[in-house]
Amino acid sequence: MELNESFDRLVALIREQEVVNWVVDRIEERTRDNLVYLAKFAYMTGLINKVDIKTYLGVDSKEAKELVRQWYTDHRERGCGTC
User: Fold this and answer.
1) Rounded to an integer, what distance in angstroms lies between the CA atom of residue 35 and that of residue 67?
2) CA distances, 17 to each of 7, 31, 40, 62, 83 (Å)
3) pLDDT band at 79; cut points 50, 70, 90
4) Which distant-in-sequence residues (6+ apart) come within 8 Å of 68 by Cβ?
5) Which residue has the higher pLDDT, 76 or 61?
6) What DSSP designation does 45 have?
7) CA nearest 43: which of 15, 5, 71, 73?
8) Each residue of 41-74: pLDDT tens digit?
9) How far is CA 30 from CA 27, 61, 80, in A?
10) Are the beta carbons of 33 and 23 closer than 8 angstroms?
């Protein structure tokens, strides 16, 4: 899936769950960094799973696993609200 399609689908999912106000600053600009941020937010709030991370970000299983590891490390070090 290309960046714009992934971005649109992920934003739509976040909007459907009515939590877009938590990431409104990240949906204005379609960048790879913002897409990863939105994927992190969606994963950490239970909106998507590891398979979805692979789909939205176009990464393989190893890369998805490493991203999730980084996200949990970040969460442990800085607490909730870092995504």
Assistant:
1) 13
2) 16, 22, 15, 28, 16
3) confident
4) 43, 50, 53
5) 61
6) T
7) 71
8) 999 999 999 999 999 999 999 999 999 999 999 9
9) 7, 24, 24
10) no
